[in-house]
Design brief:
261 residues; alpha/beta
């Protein structure tokens, strides 16, 4: 079967230091300070072309790390990621250079995604029309609100027309009008048979939009399958989890993190 994205035993870890000086020591004395924190551990899954995958899980479970790996923003420490086609990431805080204007960001992202100057010129009016941020297009992105950044990021990514769209919480800061337009655009992509990864804490949106669900729990795949099954099980887990005290939740987290996969 033709697959668009395949992860095999992917692990991503970050070094954590107790003191800033430990980070410097590490640089000079060969990585002996600090401890590894595993954002993802032994993650495997295979997505066919045209699948719409909802990625769900608690805060800090590894969803954004996964979206960065799918879109090639970061590389795994172990394991293999195979991504067939161009992947564009839409995230609230990623992909835009805040020192540049909106217009300059369109050019930059276009070049990064391999578009020619002519192609970039062609998409600029479409991005301006979709983003609807008016004269702010000529202002540095650092002056934008979160919603405006999301509008620009979304408008650029969908107009670049990638094979794979990775949407990381970008809809959560849009106003209802913009969110509706994004969902319409995502549906268009869905009908065209593109592959979409959709990260959201809104189980309603995920159920409505996705075909598959990938539940990430403290860095590991807890469940991968039909969206309604995965969302039902995650919902049941949340009902139980919400009844725990903060101390019990912390114990649960510690236990999950120390368990070997
Ligand atoms: N650059 C980094 N350096 C150190 N730790 C990181 C880094 N990026 C992510 N992490 C850690 O990896 C874990 C997973 O983070 P990630 O952002 O992927 O979670 P998430 O599921 O997207 O969370 P949320 O729902 O809050 O957005 C967290 O414990 C986070 O602190």
């Amino acid at each position: 079967m033709e697959y668009k994205v395949k992860f095999t035993n992917v692990t991503k870890k970050f070094k954590m230091y107790n003191k800033p000086t430990d980070r410097i020591k590490d640089l000079f004395f060969g990585g002996k300070s600090g401890e590894y924190h595993y954002a993802l551990r032994n993650v495997s899954f295979e997505i066919e072309k045209g699948e719409i995958v909802g990625i769900i899980g608690l805060n800090g479970s590894g969803k954004s790390t996964l979206s960065n790996l799918i879109s090639g923003v970061t590389l795994p420490n172990e394991g293999e990621t195979e991504v067939n086609g161009t992947a564009a990431l839409i995230a609230i805080a990623a992909g835009l250079d805040i020192r540049l204007t909106g217009l300059e960001n369109i050019e930059l992202k276009g070049l990064m995604m391999g578009l020619t100057k002519k192609e970039i010129k062609e998409i600029i009016p479409k991005v301006i029309e979709f983003a609807e941020i008016g004269k702010f297009m000529n202002q540095p992105v650092k002056t934008y609100s979160s919603g405006m950044k999301s509008r620009l990021g979304f408008a650029i990514s969908v107009n670049i027309d990638p094979d794979i769209l990775v949407i990381d919480e970008a809809l959560s800061v849009g106003d209802p009008t913009f969110t509706k337009r994004c969902l319409d655009k995502m549906n268009e992509f869905k009908e065209e048979g593109k592959t979409i990864f959709f990260i959201s804490h809104s189980l309603g949106q995920v159920r409505d939009f996705c075909t598959k669900g990938l539940w990430i729990h403290y860095g590991k795949v807890k469940e991968f399958g039909e969206i309604n099954d995965v969302a039902d099980h995650y919902q049941e887990f949340l009902t139980h989890y919400n009844k725990l005290t903060p101390a019990e939740r912390e114990k649960d987290r510690e236990l999950a993190l120390t368990q070997e996969s």
